[in-house]
């Protein structure tokens, strides 16, 4: 019974650590994607042409449709990844745009050059990873004396 309790404590400590390590791997991948985007994408200026209301019931947040001209002179339009309430952008507002000139997609894998469009995902997954790893390590530290204690030997009864 005692061994079962020790195994449960160990599992309770290791699960958040492994989940945190998974989030850390996601953070690392996300950081590499953002750095690639910032290193290879072309910067230009675009204009917010309209706002799209969220399709989720009761969600008043809005995302922006942005139109810009690519390096070939073609107009391209894309919808921002993040939506906010109130809207961060106004119709007619000029915004900095990053896009992939080698993309064959219609929107050229474009996004507004801002913190929320680029770095918000890596920062949030990194914080989540930290919370899971720290909580798992905390459980492990608290449980460590119980996990490493040698089993007690019962003294035989004298009758």
Brief descriptors of the model:
alpha+beta; 159 residues; 3 helices
Structure at a glance:
The chain is of the alpha+beta class and 159 residues long. Helices cover 45% and strands 21% of the residues. Strands 3-2-1-4-5 form a five-stranded antiparallel β-sheet, with helices on one face.
Secondary structure topology:
Elements: H1 2-40, E1 42-53, E2 62-69, E3 75-79, E4 94-99, E5 111-112, H2 115-118, H3 120-148
Antiparallel strand pairs: 1-2, 1-4, 2-3, 4-5
What can you tell me about this protein's structure?
The protein contains three helices and five strands, in the order αβββββαα. With 159 residues, the protein is an alpha+beta fold. A five-stranded antiparallel β-sheet has the order 3-2-1-4-5, covered by helices on one side. A hairpin with a 5-residue loop joins strand 2 (62-69) and strand 3 (75-79). Helix 1 (2-40) packs antiparallel against helix 3. The protein starts with a helix and ends in an 11-residue tail after the last helix. The relative contact order is 0.20. The mean pLDDT is 85.
């Amino acid at each position: 019974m005692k061994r079962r309790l020790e195994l449960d404590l160990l599992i309770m400590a290791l699960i958040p650590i492994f989940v945190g390590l998974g989030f850390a791997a996601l953070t690392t991948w996300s950081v590499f994607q953002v750095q690639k985007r910032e290193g290879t994408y072309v910067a230009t200026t675009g204009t917010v042409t309209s706002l799209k209301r969220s399709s989720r019931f009761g969600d008043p947040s809005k995302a922006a449709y942005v139109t810009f001209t690519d390096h070939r002179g073609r107009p391209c339009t894309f919808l921002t990844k993040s939506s906010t309430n109130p809207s961060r952008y106004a119709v007619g507002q000029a915004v900095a745009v990053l896009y992939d000139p080698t993309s064959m997609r219609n929107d050229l894998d474009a996004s507004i050059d801002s913190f929320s469009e680029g770095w918000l995902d890596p920062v949030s997954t990194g914080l989540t990873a930290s919370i899971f790893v720290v909580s798992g390590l905390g459980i492990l530290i608290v449980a460590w004396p119980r996990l490493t204690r040698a089993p007690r030997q019962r003294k035989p009864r004298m009758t």
